[in-house]
Amino acid sequence: MNMETSQAGMGNNTVMCLLTDPEGTNLGSAMYIPQTAGPLQLTQLVNRFLNNEEMLPYSFYVSDEELLVPVGTYLEKNQVSVEKVLTIVYQQQAVFRIRPVNRCSQTIAGHAEAVLCVSFSPDGKQLASGSGDTTVRLWDLYTETPLFTCKGHRNWVLSIAWSPDGKHLVSGSKSGEICCWNPKKGELDGNPLTGHKKWITGISWEPVHLSSPCRRFVTSSKDGDARIWDVTLKKTLICLSGHTLAVTCVKWGGDGIIYTGSQDCTIKMWETTQGKLIRELKGHGHWVNSLALSTEYVLRTGAFDHTGRQYPPNEEMKKALERYNQTKGDSPERLVSGSDDFTMFLWEPSVSKQPKKRLTGHQQLVNHVYFSPDGKWIASASFDRSVRLWNGVTGQFVTAFRGHVGPVYQVSWSADSRLLLSGSKDSTLKIWEIRTKTLKQDLPGHADEVFAVDWSPDGEKVVSGGKDKVLKLWKG
Amino acid sequence: MPQGDYIELHKKRHGRRLDYEERKRKKEARQVHKRSKQAQNSIGIKGKMIAKKNYAEKAQMKKTLKMHEESSSRRKADEDVQEGAVPAYLLDRENTTRAKVLSNTIKQKRKEKAGKWEVPLPKVRPVAEDEMFRVIRSGKRKTKQWKRMVTKATFVGPGFTRKPPKYERFIRPSGLRFTKAHVTHPELRCTFCLEIIGIKKNPNGPMYTSLGVMTRGTIIEVNVSELGLVTPAGKVVWGKYAQVTNNPENDGCINAVLLV
Q1: Where would I find the beta strands (DSSP E) of A109-215?
Q2: Contacts of A111 in chain B (CB under 8 A)
Q3: Does residue B191 contact residue B232 with C-beta atoms inside 8 Å?
Q4: Interchain pair A202, B88: CB under 8 A
Q5: How confident is the model at residue B75 (pLDDT cuts 50, 70, 90)?
Q6: DSSP B236
Q7: What does the UniProt entry say about where the protein is found (chain A) (predicted)?
Q8: CB contact under 8 A, B81 and A134
Q9: Judging by DSSP bridges, how do beta strands A461-466 and A216-221 pair with one another?
């Protein structure tokens, strides 16, 4: 190994380094590395040690700061003593790289009222949007034109969700009813499902690796309960009541637990076979606005990954489980909740009832929190016009992205976790780069507030919809 | 009333009149008008009794109608689709509408125009005229009472010359004339002794403003060239407004706070 020098003990042009992975396990023992070694050489080293077949990209961090220059320069700048062992944490980055979008390829009109929610299907081939004119519309991504108009709701369509295998689309409305659609034909599947008495605030599907084909999903509503439905039987399986005020968000975790956040300042964890309450996470001082799981992105996309391959049903479950375990790693699933009390909590719900860390810093309520697809970062959008970036494992604050002049409503990550997109009331979208922690691209063009944004899982397109009733597709 | 059954006997023997049915129908139809005329024209206790009876009948009819309208199927009434669709995270929040923001800016502009500035002392105790002025008797027999002497602190400009004493109505004693004020900067919390340039507004009235009377709450203009303030354009600021915070006639000095 020509990296290790034979000058053991000479501190002049070598540094004693210890490579560790994000969870803390050491890679080999402490070794001498020449001071001219930069990230490239360290990548080679790590690949060699891990016996990787192909060269995977890594990024290196020394005491939470990214190492972009050779080790020697870093030591000089920070005046770290050469005598001590330098701990370098390596993190694998995504193999593929997403191109940042920079132009609006199409402005598609069609909705008669404000667009309230948009969502790409997990394979990135279909797009659905719900609006205040009570319709759900499906759009063709190749020609960028409307495909189907799905009528069936009686009031505004507040949320939509694709099943992780891409075969079902479910939407919830302001009158409390849920409609299931066949995305290939654009038709209503059966009758609207009733049961909730007030409007639907969120929908979440059961992960594919727990049950394939996808049948169950959970919805949360203002009337204070969450219901688990079966899309083939078209009825409520279990009603999870317990919250005293509106349930604002619901997420189905990868370990089969449902998390619900509510306006009564608590988060409840439910088990899914009988609908019993497992735990209650208290701590917030005001409404819980949004929840995010560290494995959320991989649960949403199921068995689809950046290669875009389709799998037969029985293989889907295996592939989804493989992807889930890869993202999750050895650590337990993490949950972050954003609230009206201007703070967020990072929880490890399967480990303890007490929050792991309290993330403070925002000066107005936190509207939306989202883990990056690899689970390493947390992005939070707040009404104080900033987007904050936090470390996804420890909850440490990293940086605040300022640039918006109005409250930031929603954020979305690119599939490789290198770019972050935010949409705000000031009618612009902004793309932020994580590596340099600066603004990468400003996407103006909307005439009014931007209510919903989404980045397609294959990274090709970004869609945004808002109060000006049009859908904008952005491309790189 | 018939005392016997001769009417029925006649009916049985000879039957009814040929137009009996028609007449009966028309008479019954006229009853409605008759009843209404009766109800409208009766007076006194009779009228009250008729009205009470009618009201009771009306209430009963309404109840039975409502009962019939109730259906056994419980269907939620269709809510109208409202305008101004917002996503779920904005539903429970009362955002100020654009109209409200516009009306607020207009209100602010109006306030500025009216001269209602935001000052440290928005309200001060009004000073009565007899407290402000003392009557000076003049004339050979000291019967004329048209002269007044100001009893509060005043400011007269540097080029001030009295009017001929025979004609001056308001006397401003030189003992109560001040040229300098102790002005405090609210944020820096330090006080400077600055020259007064003029009186901008006395809250007790325009007359006092023109006389130059300084009471608590008066806005005065002071010379701040000592402080070395510069405008963003690069020009030196030499006059700023300050508001008087004490009662100068009691203290013998003028304390003011700078309006930044």
Answers
A1: 115-120, 126-131, 135-140, 145-151, 157-162, 169-173, 178-182, 187-188, 200-205
A2: none
A3: no
A4: yes
A5: low
A6: B
A7: Nucleus, Nucleolus
A8: yes
A9: unpaired
Judged by a CB distance cut-off of 8 A, whether residue B81 touches chain A is yes
Secondary structure letter of residue A22 according to DSSP: T
Q: Where are the domains of chain A?
A: 14-92, 103-475
3-class secondary-structure state, position A5: coil
Q: Give A164-176 pLDDT, tens digit per residue.
A: 988 899 999 999 9
Q: Which of B74, B78, B83, B91 to mutate to test the interface with A (most CBs of A within 10 A)?
A: B91
Distance from CA of A466 to the nearest CA of B (A): 9
Distance CA A218, CA A253 (A): 11
Name the DSSP letter for residue B127: P
Q: From the CB of residue B176, how many other CB atoms can be counted at a distance below 10 Å? A: 18
Q: What average pLDDT does the segment B214-240 reach?
A: 84
Residues of A in contact with B86 (CB under 8 A): 114, 116, 132, 451
- Cα–Cα distance, A348 to A354 (Å, whole number): 8
pLDDT computed for residue B96 by the predictor: 62
**Separation of alpha carbons A336 and A346, rounded Å:** 5
Dump pLDDT digits (tens) for B154-164: 999 998 888 89
Helix or strand holding residue B64 (H, E): helix B44-69
CATH fold, domain A103-475, is Methylamine Dehydrogenase; Chain H (2.130.10)
Question: Over 90: is that where the pLDDT of A55 sits?
Answer: no
Asked if B77 has any chain A CB less than 8 Å from its own CB, the reply is no
Closest CA to A243 of A225, A258, A270, A222: A225
Contact state of A248 with B86 under an 8 Å Cβ cutoff: no
Tokens of A255: 């370990």
Across the interface, of A117, A134, A175, the residue whose CB is closest to B87 is A117
Sheet strands (E) in A174-246? 178-182, 187-188, 200-205, 216-221, 225-230, 235-241
- Shortest CA distance from A452: residue in chain B: B87
Q: Do B89 and A134 touch (CB under 8 A)?
A: no
Checking ipTM against 0.90, whether it exceeds it is no
Q: Would you call B89 and A199 a contact, using CB atoms and an 8 Å cutoff?
A: no
Q: Which residue of B has its CA nearest to A410?
A: B89
Paired residues of B183 in beta bridges = B192, B256
Query: To the nearest whole angstrom, how far is the Cα of A149 from the nearest Cα of chain B?
Result: 18
Domains of chain B: 129-258 (2.40.10.310)
Global pTM value = 0.65
* Tens of pLDDT, residues A228-249: 999 999 999 999 999 999 999 9
Residues A95-150 have pLDDT tens digits of 777 888 888 888 888 899 999 999 999 988 889 999 999 999 999 888 888 899 99
SS3 A423: strand
Q: Using alpha carbons only, what angle is made at residue B148 by residues B142 and B153, rounded to the nearest 5 degrees? A: 140
- Nearest residue of chain A to residue B93 (CA atoms): A340
CB contact under 8 A, A154 and B89: no
Q: Is B78 on the interface with A (CB under 8 A)?
A: yes
Other beta carbons within 10 angstroms of residue B30's beta carbon come to 10
> Distance from A14 to chain B by nearest Cα, in Å?
54
CATH C-level class of A14-92 = alpha beta
CA–chain centroid gap for A202, Å, is 15
Q: Give residue A1's pLDDT.
A: 47
The single-letter code of the amino acid at A354 is Q
